[in-house]
UniProtKB/TrEMBL annotation:
Gene3D superfamilies named in the record: Amidase signature (AS) domain (3.90.1300.10)
SUPFAM superfamilies to which the protein is assigned, alphabetical: Amidase signature (AS) enzymes
Keywords, alphabetical: Ligase, Transferase
Protein name per UniProt: Aspartyl-tRNA(Asn)/glutamyl-tRNA(Gln) amidotransferase subunit A
Gene Ontology MF annotations: asparaginyl-tRNA synthase (glutamine-hydrolyzing) activity; glutaminyl-tRNA synthase (glutamine-hydrolyzing) activity; transferase activity
Enzyme class: ligase
Species the sequence originates in: Acetobacter lovaniensis
InterPro entries named among the record's database cross-references: Amidase (IPR000120), Amidase_dom (IPR023631), AS_sf (IPR036928), Carboxybiuret_hydro_AtzE (IPR014087)
Length: 449
């Protein structure tokens, strides 16, 4: 397998006999074993099971049996999805003695039913609480484009595995930006679907009213194909006429020059002038943060009382702080959320897709984990979600696309639509891809070659 094969390309090669599923899997496992030490995206390999499943695909083909659409395609899962027979750790040692999962998470099962093969669990921030994939128990995931820099989080291992070319498809979760931040920093496609559109069964929870399961891919076609398989619905027609608008105000501040220029090129290509603004974005970000903290803290409080010392100290302190929030604060945040949702939905009566930056700059350095906010250095771990957190609040579908030809390390763009309108996101993303403005960012070595 070449380092950057697509999921659909692999499936086609296996179906036509160009490559065997076993040879694909051997190559995948060899690549991970050889190269992941520098990136640390993988926490566990299902090597034997993956090879056996690949051989079973080849046996079906030898008997001239029809193959499902993703037969032989390798994929990885953020280490909070249940894999039958495997202990789900959610990036923590706290759960290491829990019984193995008795069945796969629902979206894992649907990918398997489509023929895809689970190869690995992937690194994450402990209990999905963070934007850095800096894990006290399992190590730091590094950005494949520059291993001195962050991959982002909390689904950093999933984004990095795709960016490095280890796997064409990986699963993640997004509460406040945990798919969109690492997708942006690693230069791959990422989708946070509409809240509730993909089933969360078998995914370890963080914030019940905000958690969304989604995925990463190296190509838009792979992203779309996997989405409809996991949603268990036929592919929807992509609308050809779309009303788009760029978000201004909060979303036009603190941009790096390269990102501001790239957004300008996108708006120019789409014939957009001016911008629109969502109301009270600082409050929306604060409400999203408070809801997450309160729900996460409440979820973990019983275990914190019994085994606080087993948590990553940074995670533990944030969860304890969330558990101590007054209930009145949580109620107030949820009231604001309902009001904000109504304002956003009203905007979608005039616009089909909103365009916003995903992260304000390229990946921060691990030895200087800061970004510039309002002209001053600020903690990257606390502020990488500056543009993703407010958009999380209404439960909207958001596609993070990698921008092309920025002259920098990867930068990403959020495309935002009304609930259930993922097809509109795919349509606009396709137009930007065809214009050469969007597409998976190749590694520097590939560019040099």
């Amino acid at each position: 397998m070449t380092r950057f094969a697509s999921a659909l390309g692999i499936a086609q090669d296996i179906r036509t006999g160009k490559r065997s599923a076993a040879s694909v899997m051997q190559s995948v496992l060899a690549t991970i074993n050889q190269h992941d030490a520098a990136i640390h995206s993988v926490t566990h390999l299902f090597a034997q099971q993956a090879m056996e499943q690949a051989q079973a695909v080849d046996a079906l083909l030898a008997r001239k049996k029809p193959l499902p659409p993703l037969a032989g395609v390798p994929f990885g899962v953020k280490d909070l999805f249940d894999i039958q027979g495997h202990v789900t750790t959610a990036g923590s040692i706290v759960l290491r003695n829990t019984p193995p999962a008795t069945q796969d998470a629902t979206i894992v099962a649907r990918l398997r039913a489509a023929g895809a093969i689970a190869v690995a669990t992937l690194n994450m921030d402990e209990f999905a609480y963070g934007f850095a994939t800096d894990n006290a128990h399992y190590g730091i995931t590094r950005n494949p484009h520059d291993t001195s820099r962050m991959a982002g989080g909390s689904s950093g291992g999933s984004a990095a595995a795709v960016a490095a070319g280890f796997l064409p498809l990986t699963l993640g979760t997004d509460t406040n930006g945990s798919i969109r931040v690492p997708a942006s920093l690693c230069g791959v496609w990422g989708l946070k679907p509409t809240f509730g559109r993909l089933p969360r069964e078998g995914a370890y929870p963080f914030s019940a009213s905000l958690d969304v399961v989604g995925h990463f891919a190296g190509t838009l076609d792979d992203l779309m194909a996997a989405f409809y398989i996991m949603a268990d619905t036929p592919a929807e027609p992509e609308p050809q006429t779309l009303r788009a608008a760029c978000l201004g105000g909060w979303f036009a501040q603190n941009l790096s020059p390269a990102l501001a220029a790239a957004i300008g090129r996108v708006c120019q290509h789409l014939g957009l002038s001016g911008s629109v603004e969502l109301p009270q974005i600082p409050t929306a970000r604060a409400a999203s943060f408070l809801i997450t903290a309160a729900e996460g803290g409440t979820l973990h409080l019983p275990r914190l009382r019994a085994a606080a010392e087993e948590y990553d100290p940074a995670t533990r302190d944030r969860l304890l702080a969330g558990a101590m929030l007054p209930s009145s604060t949580y109620v107030q945040a949820q009231r604001f959320r309902r009001w904000f949702r109504r304002q956003v939905h009203a905007m979608f009566e005039e616009v089909d897709v909103l365009i916003a930056p995903a992260v304000m700059c390229e990946a921060p350095r691990l030895d200087d984990p800061t970004i510039m906010v309002d002209g001053k250095p600020a903690s990257a771990r606390a502020n990488l979600g500056l543009y993703t957190q407010p958009i999380s609040l209404p439960g909207l579908p958001v596609l993070c696309l990698p921008l092309r030809n920025t002259g920098t390390l990867p930068l990403g763009l959020q495309l935002v639509a009304a609930p259930g309108r993922e097809a509109a996101l795919f349509s606009l993303a396709r137009k930007l891809e065809q214009a050469g403005l969007a597409g998976r960012c190749p590694l520097e070595a590939q560019q040099a070659a």
